[in-house]
Write a structure and sequence with these properties.
Number of strands: 8
Mean pLDDT: 93
CATH architecture: Alpha-Beta Barrel
Number of helices: 9
Distance between the termini: 23 Å
Strand content: 15-25%
Structural class: alpha/beta
Radius of gyration: 16 Å
CATH class: Alpha Beta
Largest sheet: 8 strands, parallel, barrel
CATH topology: TIM Barrel
Low-confidence stretches: none
């Protein structure tokens, strides 16, 4: 899939969401799952990734693995998402000709990722988030607007995004989001339906 055709919504899940919530999300229209797991062993992460690969195949959805290029390759994922301290993008591209995204937190990192050939960047945290224990200070909508003006590849806003603030993200010119609790907390199907309606409204 070309980077300019990436789904608008990337749902980030961990082993805590298996399997009912993930399948509900896929049935409700989510077309991209990113597996981010920090607590389990690499072997356990691999087996969870295999199960996710089967699920995403069933629903014709993308699967990317956070951090672990070897696991992404072993489970035949569609891509990998790398942080600033993970394997360098240039090295990853040599052995994994698939979707590669990079976490960025400032303009310099975003420009570097674009120059080196990332298919997309994640940028944030935009708002304060409780999902990541080591989350940085929020970057805010003004910085997101600047990133949107300077970066030509898809920018996925991340961090504290929910139904209450999604329109602020879109007003910054951003058309892609990555989130977890904003969808998985409460009524998963209802949350996804509302997010999709909001994106559809702005597309029109």
């Amino acid at each position: 899939m070309k980077s300019n055709r990436l789904p608008s919504i990337c749902l980030i899940v961990s082993s805590n969401e298996f399997f009912s919530k993930v399948e509900i999300a896929l049935k409700s229209g989510i077309k991209w799952i990113q597996f981010r797991e920090k607590e389990l062993s690499r072997k356990e992460i691999f087996y969870f990734a295999l199960k996710l690969r089967d699920l995403t195949f069933q629903y014709n959805a993308l699967l990317t693995i956070n951090d672990y290029l070897d696991i992404a390759m072993a489970c035949q994922a569609d891509g990998v998402h790398l942080g600033q301290d993970d394997l360098p993008l240039e090295a990853a591209k040599k052995i994994f000709p698939a979707i590669i995204g990079i976490s960025t937190h400032n303009l310099q990192e975003a420009l570097k990722a674009q120059k080196e050939g990332a298919h997309y960047i994640g940028f944030g945290p935009i708002f304060r988030t409780l999902t990541k224990k080591d989350a940085l200070e929020p970057r805010g909508c003004n910085m997101l607007s600047l990133i949107q003006k300077k970066i030509q590849i898809p920018v996925f806003a991340i961090g504290g995004i929910n139904l209450e603030n999604i329109e602020k993200i879109i007003e910054c010119g951003c058309r892609h989001i990555a989130l977890s609790s904003g969808i998985l907390s409460g009524d998963v199907e209802g949350n996804i339906e509302k997010f999709i309606k909001i994106f559809d409204k702005f597309k029109k």
